[in-house]
Each structure stands twice: as structure tokens, then as C-alpha cells.
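Whiteboard transcription, Tuesday session. T.W. wrote the C-alpha cells on the left side:
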């Protein structure tokens, strides 16, 4: 159990957790009303893990997360308006409407995303830490990922390298008991996840991810040790997501009773009640925190709704490969574009076929978007 901070700080933690909860509840509503497209992964139930770990960081430290990252952006200080606009795919989104739910990003606040590839953020975290090492500063990178991600090759590869090169990363596995619909004991041979880095040279520890104080206490200790000793650590936060994996999850893999048991440990009322018992908060102040969160979410929706969609032409901005070099897209008739089977000996013919196919892809894309000459 961590130590209760100054009243003002404790209230801020409660406000942040409440904002994340209210924001995501509204996001679910907006998804149902088709204001949000693509995927939407909510972290309702995991707010103590998010706030507890983020508040263990300095503003100059880096946080990198997964596709379940609305809360991470919010806790880092990205305005709810820009997070909601991102969900709506609008120009004022924190990734300019390009990323959507899974790709939140805010460089100014050192929130480094937002990644759809399970385990894809671990090597990036190592890269950020390596850059800090080169720069000779004492910044720490906190990399959060799911229990499912521990089974990815990137987990072993990154932890090994981070230990070998003494990179200042705190790896934090958010153990919410499931990788999509697969329970921890069915997807991981080792279920004591804090131990999963041991053989790779990364010692681990565990916190109660339903308790913001404990999470903050354990992660703060890890962050400061990493800052001092310049060698990585692993923290396992034990938590639970109250909602499905994404909005399209019939939840047949767990019982209602199990969800109810975890809901009884809801981290937000648990912390609010602790603060009330400690005299840090009274009922009226608690209600005010909730009202404020609701108002901020209302304003975020209004802002996102008023923000324009990106112009079709802007599709060609910020991409590395343009026009004739475009190699293909899911939405095009790629089967028709495949060049005739090249003769294995005729490299020239193969190259020619490839160029023609790519040019055709570019032509189809410009046609489909009605961009005409502009983009060709
Ligand atoms: C490399 C890769 N493989 C598979 C998927 C499909 N997928 C999306 S989420 C997910 C489960 C990940 O579970 P976990 O790491 O525990 O994160 P959680 O969703 O619980 O936050 C999988 C397998 C993916 N996105 N990337
Ligand atoms: Mg999980």
C-alpha cells in the first residue's frame, strides 16, 4: 500500500481517474451512434493502473502505451477535446484525425502513442531510452503493454537488449487477466508475470492495479531506481477490464459473476471512499469532481463534433511513399493489379510488371479520391 499524498494531489488523482472513466463511457455512446469508426478499446476498470503509473513520472519522462490508450493520453495532459476529436477522425485530433482510437500521440507531452501491433511498442520504448542514453540525460521511459503482449517475441528481444545495454525503461505489464478472449492461464505458461523478465536480466515486482496508491508507490520506486541505476525493471499491475476487449465483444469467455466480483473493487469509488474516510474529501467535493469530469466530456464532444474532417487531398501528406511508388492498398482491386506471373529468369520483366502494377494502384487511388492531376 502506497502512501497517501498531499490532499491536493490525491484529489487530482481522483479527478484524473474520474475523467478517464466518464470520457470512455461517453466514447462508448459515441461509438454506438457511429460518431466513431474503426475499433474502440476501453480501459474502464484500469484507471488506477493508468493514473498510478503516470503520476510516478516527471513531465520530462516518456510514456508509451498500446491501442488501449485514451486514458494514457488524458492523464498525460492531452486535452479531452483533442482526444475525442481523434476518436471522431477530425483534424483537431491529437494525431490530426489520422490515427483514431488506437493511435493517440502527443509528442509535446511525451506521450509516444498508441500502437495497434501487440508488443510493437516495446522495441520503440527501448529506442527512446537509447536516445536518452545518447543524449546523456536522466529521463526514464515507462512502457505499458498487456499480459498478452508478454508472449510476443518483442518482449524477450527487447527485455534482453534493454538489460544488456542498461536502458532506462520501466516495463509495465497491465495484467487485466485476458488477451482478447483468452484467459491468462490459457495463453501464458508462466502466469506470475512479474517473473517473466528474470531470465532476460530484468527483475520484476508487482502492484495492485486496482489501487492507485499501491500502483503509484511501486511504480515510483521502480522509476527512481531505473533513473538512478540505468537498468530496466518490470512491474506487473494486476487489474481487470470491466468492458469487453473492444466494442465488438460478446464476452462469452467469462462469467457475469466474475465481472461483478471485480467491479466490487472498482478503483474509483474505492479511492474516493478512502479520501472521505481520511477527511480529504466530503460528499459535496466528490460530486463536484464528477460534475467537472462530465462537463469536460460534454465540451470535448461538442468540440469534436464541430471540428472538420481532414480534406481528402491531405491523404498524401505525411506519407513516406507517394504516387507511383504506392505499393498497394486493401481497398483496391489488388488481384487485378498483380502482374502476369514473371518468368523466374526474367528479372527485367518482373520489375516492369511491378512498376506497371504500382502505377495502376496510384492511378486507382487518385481516381477513387477524385484528386485528378493534383496528386499524379
Ligand atoms: C502482433 C499482433 N498480433 C495479434 C493482434 C490481434 N490482437 C489485438 S489485441 C490482442 C490481445 C492483446 O492482449 P493484451 O496484450 O493482454 O492487451 P489488452 O487487450 O488486454 O489490453 C490481439 C491478439 C495484434 N493486434 N497484433
Ligand atoms: Mg490483457
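and on the right, the sequence the group agreed on:
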Amino acid at each position: 500500500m502506497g502512501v497517501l499524498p498531499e490532499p491536493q494531489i490525491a484529489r487530482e488523482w481522483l479527478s484524473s481517474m474520474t475523467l478517464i472513466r466518464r470520457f470512455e463511457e461517453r466514447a462508448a455512446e459515441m461509438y454506438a451512434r457511429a460518431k466513431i469508426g474503426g475499433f474502440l478499446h476501453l480501459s474502464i476498470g484500469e484507471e488506477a493502473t493508468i493514473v498510478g503509473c503516470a503520476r510516478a513520472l516527471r513531465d520530462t519522462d516518456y510514456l508509451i502505451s498500446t491501442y488501449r490508450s485514451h486514458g494514457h493520453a488524458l492523464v498525460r495532459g492531452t486535452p479531452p477535446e483533442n482526444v475525442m476529436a481523434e476518436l471522431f477522425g477530425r483534424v483537431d485530433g491529437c494525431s490530426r484525425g489520422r490515427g483514431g482510437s488506437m493511435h493517440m500521440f502527443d509528442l509535446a507531452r511525451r506521450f509516444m502513442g498508441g500502437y495497434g501491433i501487440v508488443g510493437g511498442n516495446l522495441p520503440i520504448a527501448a529506442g527512446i531510452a537509447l536516445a536518452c542514453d545518447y543524449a546523456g540525460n536522466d529521463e526514464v521511459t515507462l512502457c505499458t503493454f498487456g499480459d498478452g503482449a508478454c508472449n510476443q517475441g518483442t518482449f524477450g528481444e527487447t527485455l534482453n537488449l534493454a538489460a544488456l545495454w542498461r536502458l532506462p525503461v520501466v516495463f509495465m505489464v497491465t495484467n487485466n487477466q485476458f488477451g482478447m478472449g483468452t484467459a491468462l492461464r490459457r495463453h501464458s505458461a508462466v502466469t506470475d508475470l512479474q517473473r517473466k523478465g528474470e531470465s532476460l536480466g530484468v527483475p520484476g515486482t508487482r502492484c495492485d492495479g486496482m489501487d492507485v496508491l499501491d500502483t503509484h508507490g511501486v511504480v515510483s520506486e521502480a522509476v527512481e531506481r531505473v533513473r538512478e541505476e540505468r537498468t530496466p525493471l518490470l512491474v506487473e499491475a494486476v487489474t481487470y477490464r470491466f468492458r469487453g476487449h473492444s466494442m465488438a465483444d460478446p464476452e462469452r469467455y467469462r462469467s457475469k459473476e466474475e465481472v461483478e466480483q471485480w467491479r466490487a473493487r472498482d478503483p474509483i469509488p474505492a479511492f474516493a471512499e478512502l479520501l472521505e474516510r481520511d477527511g480529504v474529501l466530503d460528499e459535496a467535493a466528490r460530486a463536484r469532481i464528477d460534475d467537472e469530469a462530465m462537463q469536460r466530456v460534454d465540451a470535448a464532444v461538442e468540440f469534436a463534433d464541430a471540428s472538420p474532417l481532414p480534406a481528402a487531398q491531405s491523404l498524401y501528406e505525411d506519407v513516406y511513399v507517394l504516387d507511383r511508388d504506392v505499393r498497394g492498398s486493401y481497398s483496391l482491386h489488388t488481384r487485378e493489379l498483380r502482374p502476369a506471373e514473371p518468368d523466374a529468369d526474367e528479372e527485367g520483366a518482373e520489375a516492369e510488371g511491378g512498376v506497371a502494377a504500382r502505377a495502376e494502384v496510384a492511378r486507382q487511388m487518385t481516381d477513387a479520391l477524385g484528386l485528378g492531376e493534383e496528386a499524379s
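Someone added at the bottom: Residues 66, 68, 116-118, 146-149, 176, 178-180, 245 surround thiamine diphosphate (ligand 1) (CB under 6 Å).
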